[in-house]
């Protein structure tokens, strides 16, 4: 078996930036994820996203003021994993949702609240899956029914899963049909979307060239420079990636500025 060892500086850098498994999650032939959860993980995620109603749904329609309170109720057996419950939108750490709706409450199952709490903060809220039916007329006059599975997310279905002040939570929840649990294919779609939105392969040198020029006067103004970065494919990185890096720079710089306290003898020369 042949073993190839990168020797030159360029080869080492290429191996670090392009050949790592973490940089090759999506397949080049179709853009679908190569590395996917399987077996027990898929079974667990399927079980986590099941929805139930009626007598099988303990605590359906209950309101909880925070995710911690919801988890405590679940651990004490007061609500089941598959019951649809209500939380304030402010309690689920999804700030974008507050910009999309004026309604203060959101409902989903206990399991889906758990699932979404593990996804990136800026990522859309995943409500589940339903079958969308399309009707068309055949030449012979018969009606053709085409079914398509669609994942409900906050990007396209937020109003369906939000509630306003004074509404009867249980009644409104029971009006909606149950969503289907997420399958292996659905999980792969979510992974692909997260990868596209939050992962970009750029060189260390390009990032370093920006970081080297960051100081206390301009550390909040690096977005334009970051949006000009080119990934390994020769394309500009998505704006969402640039915003994430920019926010990371701001957060880390402020941490350093807050914790760094120069000695009296260094105050004149400290560049903070």
Automatic annotation (TrEMBL):
Top class in the EC scheme: transferase
What keywords tag this UniProt record?
A: DNA-directed RNA polymerase, Magnesium, Metal-binding, Nucleotidyltransferase, Transcription, Transferase
Catalytic activity, EC = 2.7.7.6
> What range(s) does the RNA polymerase Rpb1 domain occupy?
24-220
Q: Which residues cross the membrane?
A: none
Molecular-function GO term, any one: DNA binding
Q: Determine if rRNA-binding is one of this entry's keywords.
A: no
Tell me which GO cellular component terms the UniProt record holds. Answer: DNA-directed RNA polymerase complex
Choose any GO biological process term that the UniProt entry carries and state it. Answer: DNA-templated transcription
Q: What does the record give as the reaction this protein catalyses?
A: RNA(n) + a ribonucleoside 5'-triphosphate = RNA(n+1) + diphosphate
Give the InterPro entries listed for this entry.
Answer: DNA-dir_RpoC_beta_prime, RNA_pol_Rpb1_3, RNA_pol_Rpb1_3_sf
The record's annotation in SUPFAM superfamilies points to:
beta and beta-prime subunits of DNA dependent RNA-polymerase
Q: What Pfam family is a match for this entry?
A: RNA_pol_Rpb1_3
Question: What biological function has been recorded for the protein in this entry?
Answer: DNA-dependent RNA polymerase catalyzes the transcription of DNA into RNA using the four ribonucleoside triphosphates as substrates.
Any idea what this protein is called?
DNA-directed RNA polymerase
Q: Which organism is it from?
A: Mycoplasmopsis edwardii
Q: What is the lineage of its organism?
A: Bacteria, Bacillati, Mycoplasmatota, Mycoplasmoidales, Metamycoplasmataceae
